Amino acid sequence: MLRADQVLTDSVEMLAYECDAYTIHKGRPDVVVHPESTEQCAAVVRLCARMGVPFTPRGTGTGLSGGATPLYGGVVISIMRMNRVLSISPADLRLRAQAGCINSTITRAVAPYGLHYAPDPSSQTACTVGGNVAENASGPHTLKYGVTANHVTALTLVLPDGSVVELGSDADEPCGYDLVGLLVGSEGTLGIVTEVTVRLTPNPREVRTLLAVFGSVDDASRAVSRIIAAGIVPCALEMMDSMIINALEDAFAMGFPRDAQALLLVELDGLGPGLDAETADVSDLCAEHNARSVTAAASEEERARLWFARKQGVGVLGRVAPNKVTQDGVIPRSLLPEVLARIRGIAESHSVRLCNIFHAGDGNLHPCVIFDERDADELRRVLVANEEILRLCVEVGGSITGEHGVGVEKRDAMPLMFSEADLAAMRRVKSAFDPAGLCNPGKIIPGPSAEAAPP
Amino acid sequence: MSRKSPADIAAGCIRCGFCLDACPTFKLTANEAESPRGRIYLMRHVLDAGRPMDAAALTHLDNCLGCRACEAVCPSGVQYGLLIEGFRARIEEEGLRPSAEAGARGMLLDTLTDRGRLGASLAGLSMVAGILRKAPAMPGLFARLLTGGQSHEAAVPLSGTGRSGGHLPAFTAAVGRARCTVCLLDGCVMSVLFANVNRATAELLSHCGCNVVCPHSAGCCGALDAHAGRRERARQRARALVDALECADYDVLVTNSAGCGSTLREYGELLADDDRYAARAAALGARTRDISEFLVELGVEPPTGRLDVTVAYHDACHLAHAQRITSPPRALLRSIAGLALVPLAESDLCCGSAGTYNVTHPETAAALLERKVANIIASGASVVAAGNPGCIAWMREGLARAGSTIRVTHTVELLAEAYRRGASQAEA
Questions:
Q1: Which of A34, A318, A322 is opposite residue B75, by nearest beta carbon?
Q2: What is the ipTM metric for this complex?
Q3: Mutate to test the interface with A, among B4, B8, B14, B29 (most CBs of A within 10 A)
Q4: Exposed, middle or buried by CB within 10 Å (0-12, 13-18, 19+), for A311?
């Protein structure tokens, strides 16, 4: 079935597979396999099904909620030897790739045609399209262009019994049950996606990128609310607070003012004349909310530099503390100022170090709590603060996750958002696909089926 | 300089995974134990448990090329190079390798870093090869030892180049009024196999208004030793070089070998525990520049001679990742009239040479070389330029094996040629 070099069994060698980028929960795999085709992947899954062994799919393990962590051991099925672009149809705006293909590889492959793949998570140079499908990943530019779910038209799926099905089609509208829609965001609990057809997006004609500097987080968040309320849809609208600004300055000397309390990175795209008017409106709205300065990137290099800062902005926290948890709550955008202030209050009351770098435009917060896991008391306080923040997001009418997935991290917070009847419906979907409960067990859904260890 | 313990450096990894797709061994194997994040996880495991390294950990740490591509993409700024060199030193110092393998590795390094022995050994090997009418190869037993029993054949790391030994003159005067005085080292491998590159470098510097001094008392900088875990040997060489250069009068120490440049710049770290040398070593590091970076900082007139060639530029790991120098060499190449610089796919992916890695890990090195050669051929270039001797020799060997006539050269040689043509046109 597989060659020896496709199978890992040494416990030390498999150590790196005990978690992904979310490190609080861990689980040791018994075996790691590297199938090289859908058939090989299906054969492994069939064997697992026959023997009653749990299995967990894994890409590059950049996930932030433990989706790729083998909580109950068993087999980790890596998709990383299935990483090729299979076909490109520029005229039809379609590309088909194996699930292990790196996100930015897709954009690089279609750049010659003036196209790109829109979902752009910060980890886009390392994360896989299969992982993006599992987590319904988004990124700064999904504010205007939509999340992964809006960009996937067809999938090849290995079901948890080892059979292989083709879902969706190349057409723009789904036919029959929208199973692609169901699979996107299912966090690898309904089967293993091995191939993906994605929709490609033409590059914008023109882009304007603004950096607005604020003396207070309040002013910056009011400006965000006003921009959205004015009916402007920037292609990206991002906020970074002072701890992030200073960490970036320490690491890369970006030239940001260290005493600023918040930066807004606003990007607009479209056609020249309309675009200039919108850009002027955004500048004015920022100025009305006491922006100390609003400057436009003068060149493509300057723009790339601003985005570099934004994309490195979370990882850079490794220079400040050894561990971090990135929250992913979503809130109504009109409540940004109030919610950010309350989050600050929660952090202060539990003496945890917290900073904010997030997709302000769609109200997707990423409060990052930094800590040292070797300090047990600090870890405890971090977990308490985390839960309070999640409760707050739900209380104001938002959600506990925007793009990182529920995984194991937020599994037990699901009842904050869903009734027992809601969760029971989810369980029925799960067991329709995976009656034995072997496929990535312990993720998303709390309760009896998640807590009982599989056979 | 604030110094962090290995445990603190390793703790800086927040497991974001940005490094995975940058790592050549992960790209080849898809095994996370063969990725930077996985290796740091193994190191943490060893450090936290306070126990000796087990065989699996040793193998995966050993398989690292030390290319430091991960460092260049790490948002958390984890100093992976320091970590891996520290662990390599542990492997050697704790005697974790079978003694025959350790001995063979030692002999290889001693030979490469000694001008006399290197010259004699290569002459011997090519004589044998001539008699056998085969490509130069390591004797079978020696190959088996070096590769930890993996292979009966090991490449001669530097056979892909003609020998061109000879010292640089102790002093080369600037053409015209001198703008500054530059110290250029003969080096170990460079002086035996790439003396022509050394001469071109001196000529170029002189043409650009620099006096060039070459202290013949200066020996090997210790880069190969440091990268292979012979830290004490590297420190001895560093101290000797610090002493030798303190007698010389110069403004900037210029290197044309990326591996040496990165080690020289990190002398402060290497000798941080040595009270007598720490500050002097750091000062030497601060005065070190790669030739490409130096010429761009100095601001030189573009050459007036034309070179009608299509060139692809290969980013040597210790230039692009360890020293983050990627645009100066390209800017210099673009300044040559007639020269078309074409993109090279995966230009900053290691070619597999990696010091003595191509000898100790022939399979991985060959797989990376094959990939590099395919990318070079696809680029459409007729010449490949690079800034490190190991890469140049290894890529020459790979292209020759593939039956390609594409030439591999040092960036400096193209520049020197363009200036030379300009000067002879002016005379004519």
A1: A318
A2: 0.91
A3: B14
A4: buried
Whether the Cβ atoms of residue B303 and residue B418 lie closer than 8 Å to each other? yes
Structure confidence by residue, pLDDT tens digits, B194-223: 889 999 999 999 999 999 999 988 889 999
Residues in chain A with CB shorter than 8 Å from the CB of B35 are 16
Quick one: closest CA in A to B18, which residue?
A126
- CATH code, domain carrying B193: 3.40.50
Cβ-nearest to A323 among B14, B35, B57: B14
**Structural domain spans, chain A:** 4-78, 85-202, 206-315, 321-395, 414-451
The verdict on B257 and B202 lying in the same domain is yes
Q: Indicate the residue among B65, B93, B121 that finishes a domain.
A: B93
Contacts of A375 (CB under 8 A, 6+ apart): none
Count of CB pairs separated by less than 8 Å, A with B: 108
Give chain A's mean pLDDT. Answer: 93
Contact B32 A20 (CB under 8 A): no
Q: How far is CA B50 from CA B53, B59, B149, B207, B331, in A?
A: 9, 18, 29, 56, 48
User: Distance (Å, rounded) from C-alpha A126 to C-alpha A60?
Assistant: 7
Tell which B residues from 47 to 66 touch A, by Cβ distance under 8 Å: 54, 56-57, 60
Residue after which a domain boundary falls, among B40, B64, B93: B93
> How far B122 CA lies from chain A's nearest CA (Å)?
36
Provide the number of structural domains found in chain B: 3
Each residue's pLDDT tens digit, A172-225: 777 899 999 999 999 999 999 999 999 999 999 999 999 999 999 999 999 999
Write out pLDDT tens, residues A77-123.
Answer: 999 999 999 999 999 999 999 999 999 999 999 999 999 999 999 99
- For residue B348, the distance in angstroms to the closest alpha carbon of chain A comes to 15
Architecture per CATH, A206-315: 2-Layer Sandwich (3.30)
B-chain residues near A80 (CB < 8 A): 30
What are A231-242's pLDDT values in tens digits? 999 999 999 999
Q: What are phi and psi of A388, to 5 degrees?
A: -65, -35
Token digits of residue B143: 């190959």
For range B366-389, the mean pLDDT: 97
Residue B141 has pLDDT above 70, yes or no: no
CATH class of the A4-78 domain in this structure:
alpha beta
B11 near A CB under 8 A: yes
